[in-house]
Structures are given as C-alpha cells and as structure tokens.
Amino acid sequence: MANTSNYKLSAAVSNLKYDDILPYKTQNGTVTNEFLQKLIEILLDFVRATNDRNEKILDFHHPAEMQALLDLSIPNKGVSLQQLIHDCATTLKYQVKTGHPRFFNQLSCGLDLISMAGEWLTATANTNMFTYEIAPVFILMETVVMTHMREIIGSNWVNGDSILAPGGSISNLYAFLAARHKMFPNYKEKGIATIQGQLVMYTSDQSHYSVKSCASICGLGTDNCLMVPSDIHGRMIPSELERLILDRKTKGHIPFFVCCTSGTTVLGAFDPINEIADICEKYGMWLHVDAAWGGGLLLSKKYRHPRLTGVERADSVTWNPHKLMGALLQCSTIHFKEDGLLMSCNQMSADYLFMQDKLYDIKYDTGDKVIQCGRHNDIFKLWLQWRAKGDEGFEKHMDRLMELSEYMVKRIKEQSDKFYLIMEPELVNVSFWYIPTRLRKVPHSPTREQELGKLCPILKARMMQTGTLMVGYQPDDRRPNFFRNIISSAAVTESDVDFLLSEMDRLGHDL
C-alpha cells in the first residue's frame, strides 16, 4: 500500500473541515468529490496491496507501540479534511490484510470484490431492514435469496421462513428461542412459570460456544446444556446423546433441543445428522443444525454428501455466507422449516413502527420477526455476489476450496519429517503440527506432542513479526496446541500452500 503521505488533497481543500462537505452545501460539490475520490484511491490501493503477494499481511506492533504510532484522540474541534484522509490511510496501513492469499488464520477471510462493491452500495444507501416502506428493493432481495437458500437445504423447506442475523451466534439464539416457543407457546407472555420442569439442551463437546451461551442467556443455566462426547474425528456420538437424554428424563427434566454441528470450528467435523434426527424424532426434540461454517458445501454436489446428508430433516439451520461462500462480514442466515414461528415467537406488535394499515402487503415488514429493531442490510452484497457467480460458480468455488485443502494434506504427507497431520479433514480445516529439526528423529508420542504444542505460539509470533504468513493455532480436549489452517479465500493457489509450508519451515526449523 502506498505511503500515507502520498494522499494529498489540493491546497484549496486540504484545510477545509467537515462542515464544508455537508450534503446540503451544494456549492461545495467539488470539495465533496475530491474528498471522496481521494478516499476511493486509498481503498483501491489497499485492495491492490491485499492481492499482492509481495506485500506483508500485517505490519505488527504491540499495543503500546501501536498507541504511540497513532493519534486516536477525540478532539474538541474537528480536524481538517486532509487529516481525515491521513487517518483513513493510516488505519489501513496497520490493518491486517485478511484478504491476502497467505492469510490462513480465520474461518472468514478473502476479499470478494463483488461482495465488497455491494457493501459500499449498502453503506451509501444506509437504510434499516425492518420495513418494506424504507427498504423495498432490499426486502424483496432478502425474500428471494432466503427462499433460494431454503430450496437448497431441502424441497420441504421452500415454504418455511428465514432471516439474516448479526452473526452465527445470534442465528443459533433465534433457533433456541423458536424451539422453546414451539414447545411452550405461552412462555412469551407467562415466562418461566409456564414450564413445569427443567429444560435441557444438547450439543457436541466440539460445538461453537454460542450454543452453550444460549443456555446462559435464556435462563436454563450452562449446567443444563449438556456437552455430548465426540469421537476421535470430532463428530458427536449419537449413542452418547441418547444416553444423556435418558439420564435427564429419569430425573424429571425436559430434553427439548439438540444442536448438530456441520463443520466444527477447530476440526471441521460434521455430526451425523440422520442418526441424530432419528433420536430427536424418537423423543420429540427440536433439531437445529449449526452449519454456520460448513453450510457452503450444500452448494456442492461432490462434497455435500455424506457431510450434510439429512439436513432437510432439521427444524432450523444456521448458515453463514460470510464463511465458506466468501461474502463480506457480516452475513449470517437462520432458516426454519415451519413458517410463522419467527413472527409468533418474537412479535411485539409495536404499532408505532409496524402499523397494520399500510398501503402495501405488510407481510414484507420483517421488523416484528426479530429480536432487534435496527437491522443492518446484509443482503445486497450476498445477492450481488450470487448474481455474479450463480449456483454454478458457487459450486466451483466450494469444490476449489476443498481441492486446495486436499492438496495441502498431500503436501504435508510428502513432508512427514517436517509436518505431522493430525487427521484427514472433512472440511477445509487442516490440523497439524510443525516439527523442527531437533525433533524430527524423535518417535511420535504424547511427550513429543507436548513439546510440539509449546512451539506453536513461538512460531506464530515469528509469522506475525515477519508479516509473511498467518496460521491459527489452538489446543483441544485431546491435544496440546496445534496449527489449524483454513483455506476459505478464492485467491489461494497451490503455490500459496507450498509457500505456507516452506515459510513455516524457514521460520521454525531452529526451534
């Protein structure tokens, strides 16, 4: 990215202030144009830098050092337009380039230019998604895209309902609320006294923490969110689920909700949906599929099965296009097989906002279906991206990400003296240890695993300090720290995977 001092406004404009570009000052349209054009130049330079493999992913500084580099103070009097341009350029100079082809750190990465263009338009339109009255085109887009996503989940879902939510955690919360409302429709008015017994929910011990958070937020208590043991691959064990259900039933508790994870955060594992659905049907429980991470594979004929086989049997599904599909943050969806639940569960009938006597069909007003009032427009960037790629393009995208992950597994196996593959992945999560020179002839054992785990944060620190590479690491309940590589960016190529492995060895061989 260009040096921040390169972004100079003209002398006539540089010392002007915010008041000089207010929209109603039409005589200063040239000032507004120059300011915005310079800002666009900064943004485009950042896009170019993000896609330049010779650029660093980040220019790392510790928090105290960063504070010294930046002027983040809030002034009494507004600063000049030139200072604002400098502030924008400086912000991006020190921002991590999450769209860089060698950023493998997060589930949500990459910089899809069409989705980005959609986000720019969305910010400019700056509308709330709670009524058709003020967001007519965007509301219709949401209706069309959500219906299409439900069609992809299953033909029996077409007449269901969906909404975009601020992240997968809130999408999972919507599923919990709907499940409780379905079983206890009077809870909304009467509260906890309506339930004669202790509600219990179940999820895998590898699931996202937001599922357990639902128990805390909604009054069950985390002790009543039971973590079902998983197998060595990270998949929920159905027999253990049934055992835990029966155990709580004998205590007079009410098991009512099971979350099945399709793409766990760390290992990328897929719980066996059909077997879990059988148990839910047997005991009259709500089945939610958290496919926030793995839902993109619904678009792939090659990889959908067996990972997501049976998803159409669920009652609700979380699916985040801002993950595998590459839509810009945030873009999370929650889908329900049954129509009307969102409205009956969440409706507060605020007539000062959601009047019933409007001139149009009020079924298109979404505000009373959600627990928010203000709701960001997350649909346009996804709609525009889907228009650009089509179902076929997204299928190719999913297949490409999976093939790159398979390529990485192959390359790790070819360099088994330097890398230890923990398991064959089901998704794009590739979990492994890096082996430095001194440990390459040491037989693999729990002792060596502990030693390799200690090296992960040191090697990660070296990655960040050089700025050439970012790969995440974490422990799990079976292992000390290990690296979890994520390929979810369309910009990644086989040469980037090769670079990743060679750069890790360059940075870590002497550890």
Keywords:
511 residues, single chain, 12 strands, alpha/beta
Oligomer: single chain
Secondary-structure element string: HHHHEHHEHHEHEHEHEEEHHEEHEEH
Radius of gyration, in Å, reads: 25 Å
Strand order of the largest sheet: 2-8-7-6-5-3-4
Which stretches are poorly predicted, pLDDT < 50 over at least 5 residues? none
Q: Determine the number of helices (DSSP H or I, runs of at least 4 residues).
A: 15
What is the percentage of strand-forming residues?
Answer: 5-15%
Largest sheet: 7 strands, mixed
Shape descriptor: globular
The total count of strands amounts to: 12
Query: Mean pLDDT, rounded to whole units?
Result: 95
**Helix- and strand-based class?**
alpha/beta
Q: How far is the N terminus from the C terminus?
A: 32 Å
Helix content: 40-55%
Summarize the structure.
The chain has 511 residues and is an alpha/beta fold. 41% of the residues lie in helices and 12% in strands. It has 15 helices and 12 strands.
Chart the SSEs and their pairings:
Blueprint: H1 11-14, H2 29-50, H3 63-69, H4 81-93, E1 103-104, H5 113-125, H6 136-153, E2 161-165, H7 168-183, H8 187-190, E3 199-204, H9 209-217, E4 225-228, H10 238-250, E5 254-261, H11 273-283, E6 286-291, E7 316-319, E8 332-336, H12 341-346, H13 379-414, E9 419-421, E10 429-434, H14 446-466, E11 470-474, E12 482-486, H15 494-508
Parallel strand pairs: 1-11, 3-4, 3-5, 5-6, 6-7
Antiparallel strand pairs: 2-8, 7-8, 9-10, 10-12, 11-12
